[in-house]
Structures are given as C-alpha cells and as structure tokens.
Write a structure and sequence with these properties.
alpha+beta; six-stranded mixed sheet; six-stranded antiparallel β-barrel; 19 strands; about 20% helix
C-alpha cells in the first residue's frame, strides 16, 4: 500500500506480472475510487461544458460519454477527463484524483452559465473491471445482461451488478474491454467481494501502469501537463476542429503548424526498466526524454513513452541512457498493444 492523493492505494495484491496477465487473458479489477466524480445540471450546462472542454460535447446523446480535456488559456492541460451525458440538462464528469481540488476550482472559476455543480466523490466508489471476459462476467451478474453486452464504447448502463445499483460505463484504462462501475460507497466492499467470487482478479496500481503504457494511454503529470499542448501528446483526436473553447487558439495553431516534439514509443531489446527523465539518443545526438517506462509482460521487454523530436521517424534505432549505459531500442508507435475488435 502507498499513499496517493490522500488515499491509501494498493500497488499489488499477488504480483504485477500475474495481475497484468489476468487482465490480458481474463478479467481483473481495480479500485479507482480515488478518481473524482462530479455532476453538472442546468439549462445552460451544454454551453458551459462546450466552453471548458476540448471535445464536442454536443455529439453526445443520453447515456453516452467521451474522453476529453480541460484545456487552459495557453492550450495546456488542466486535466484529462471523461464526460457523460445523462439528460440534456445533466452531465457527469470523472477527473484525476491528483487534480481534484485544482479541477474543481478551475470549473467553478469559469462557471458563468449558472450551472449547478456537485462533488460526489466521497459518497461513491468506483471499480474498473477489465479484460476479454469482463463484459461476459458482468452480464451474468447484472439484471440487464443484454444492455451490458451491447453497449457502445463509453456507453452507460444504469443497472444492478450482483444486486447493487451501479452506473456502469463501458470504458477503462488498460486497452481491454470492460466497465467502470460507480456505486454507493457503502456498497463497494460487497460489490468487490461479489466480483472476486465471480473469478475477477484483484489488481493494483503497478499492473494498471503496465497495462496503460502497453495500450498507449497517457498519464497526467507524465504525458500531460499544464504547459504541454495536447497535440504534442497525440491527442488531436479528442480536440474539436469546429468549436471555440478555452485554449482552442493555441491548440489549433499547434495542429496547423506542427510541434517540435511528439510523444512516441520506445521498444527496448532488453528487459531493462526505463524511468522518467532518461534521455533518448539517435546517432549519438539527444532527441528526447522518457516520460513513462515499464517492463511489459506482454512483450517481455522494456517499453517507454518519450517526447522525441518530430523529425525522428518511426522505426528509427535509438538508445536510452540508463545510468551511463546506452540501452539499444527503436522508436515505435506508442500503442504497443491494440485489442482485436
């Protein structure tokens, strides 16, 4: 257990490797109750969310969600978030635990539309169930199995899982299929035990980090920052090309003119663990720095994210300076794992 954002968080239950394999081969679950959960209501709530978020909220229909960003005035990221539409005048948002207070302040500061915002973090819990058998397992435990099996990505099913009322969103942070379940905090232990009894493996922060790097997913504070344009992080796909929002000018400029560095993957030849800040070299010249690194159980080697000079092409051989030793690797697409549809 380790302290994180005011919570005691599990690093591992069995082992990082076994937990990662459980998610890739079956089903694993993560207690992500530290993620903050907000709601927004009002006649002008859509206008407000279109202003403060980067993605097109207007494209959502009832019971659907989208990955998005809270940009700042300079085009950097206050946070990366998920937005759900419940009704035309009601939305929900999941934000990062480490940014909880900052995000709430930012959202309140820019609320000139009279939107009623509420924080439900303490009264609720959140459990992510992920893996190729996750959906089938949840369907068997649910009173709405057809809805669980047929929901679109980021679709929401409000149902009972193992007899417990859940807001079930088809999303996650592992690259696998699955759901993130939000329930009353008082019901969390019972829901967790029911999932354990159904054969879902308990997983901690260590395997979650390994899985998200394999899947090419950014982590705030590593691949996203207040002073970093999301175009550099490869997140242009979650930024609207048509609407005006806070920070849209600098982001659109970066999209049009390019960025000096781009987030890429580095695949090593060895199982060496790469850590943030280590330098990346091509032909002896420094071209970038690592932001995240893990030893991938899937690929059986070290893999990393790094911001690398935009002129460096994929498949370029490189090295990473690991305490004075040059570890050989290759610059690759940051999605090391892609689930078969």
């Amino acid at each position: 257990m380790v302290p994180f954002a005011g919570y005691e968080m599990p690093v591992q239950y069995a082992s990082i490797i076994s937990e990662a394999k459980s998610v890739r081969e079956g089903a694993g679950m993560f207690d992500v109750s530290h993620m903050a959960r907000l709601s927004f209501k009002g006649d002008r709530v859509l206008e407000y969310l279109e202003k403060v978020t980067a993605n097109d909220v207007s494209k959502l229909s009832d019971g659907t969600g989208q990955y998005s960003l809270l940009p700042n005035d300079e085009g950097g990221c206050v946070d990366d978030i998920i937005v759900y539409r419940i009704h035309p005048t009601e939305y929900r948002m999941v934000i990062n635990a480490s940014n909880h207070g900052k995000d709430v302040f930012w959202l309140e500061q820019h609320n000139t539309e009279g939107v009623a915002m509420a924080d439900h973090t303490d009264e609720t819990a959140m459990i992510a169930v992920q893996g190729p058998t996750a959906v089938a397992t949840l369907a068997k435990l649910s009173d709405a199995p057809t809805a669980i099996e047929s929901a679109v990505m980021f679709g929401v099913v409000e149902c009972k899982i193992a007899g417990i009322d859940c807001f079930a969103a088809r999303s996650g942070y592992t690259g696998e299929d699955g759901y993130e379940l939000i329930c009353a905090a008082a019901d969390a232990a019972q829901l967790w035990q029911s999932l354990l009894d159904a054969g879902v493996a308990a997983c901690g922060l260590g395997s979650r980090d390994t899985l998200r790097v394999e899947a090419g997913l950014p982590l705030y504070g590593h691949e996203l920052e207040e002073n970093l344009n999301p175009i550099s992080a490869g997140l242009g796909w979650v930024v609207s090309k048509t609407k005006t929002f806070i920070g849209s000018g600098p982001i659109n400029d970066a999209r049009k003119n390019g960025v000096p560095k781009k987030l890429q993957g580095v695949r090593l030849e060895s199982k060496r663990l790469i850590t943030p800040g280590m330098k990346v070299y091509v032909h002896g010249q420094e071209v970038g720095a690592v932001t995240s690194g893990v030893v991938s159980p899937l690929l059986d080697r070290g893999v990393a994210f790094a911001f690398i000079d935009s002129s460096v092409a994929l498949d370029t051989p490189c090295t990473i300076d690991v305490r004075g030793k040059q570890e050989p690797g290759v610059v690759v697409n940051k999605r090391f794992f892609k689930r078969a549809k």
